[in-house]
Amino acid sequence: MSDRLLVLVRHGQSEWNLKNLFTGWKDPDLTEQGIAEAREAGRKLKAQGLSFDIAFTSVLKRAQHTLDLTLAELGQTNLPTKRDLALNERDYGDLSGLNKDDARKKWGEEQVHIWRRSYDVSPPGGESLKDTLARTLPYYVQEIQPCVLRGERTLVAAHGNSLRALIMVLEKLSPKEILARELATGVPIIYRLNADSTVASKLDLA
User: Fold this and answer.
1) Nearest of 99, 107, 167 to residue 136 by alpha carbon
2) Is 113 one of the annotated active-site residues of the chain?
3) pLDDT at 2
4) Which stretches in the chain have pLDDT values below 50?
């Protein structure tokens, strides 16, 4: 059995991250900084001597572009890749496209904080983190985890909240603990799993 390797990377900075907008399922691309972050992710993984057998990403271009740039640095531009909306960012519903400061003016600081930082309260027309987990986790269990356990070195390029769902399971975190976890853009997290799917080791390449 070869290495049970799983690497998670949040997309590089997007145009809407830069503008402080709620993004969700909207589809802005990477900024120049985001492009640099994605390339740097690839260089960091290469420096670790890593290569991959399969990749997963969302249907949103900021994650796909991050994956493409990362793989280019690894010399693996033809890597088999699966794209699925199960890995999309949390859907912010009516908040999508709004400046976060403007949203606070409209609904109040406390309400916006609840939407952003509670586990099971969703914004109008959108998803809570719990909803995002309900979408992302079955996909992980059915599609991604079996690849890792077969010894296929697996790279996942996705979003802050969809990756939180995976990290919650991998690290056995409570809803409160996962809400406190911040994921930097473009920073790979390297997991090696035991045969029973628990985490044998973790390395954050920040």
Assistant:
1) 167
2) no
3) 62
4) 1
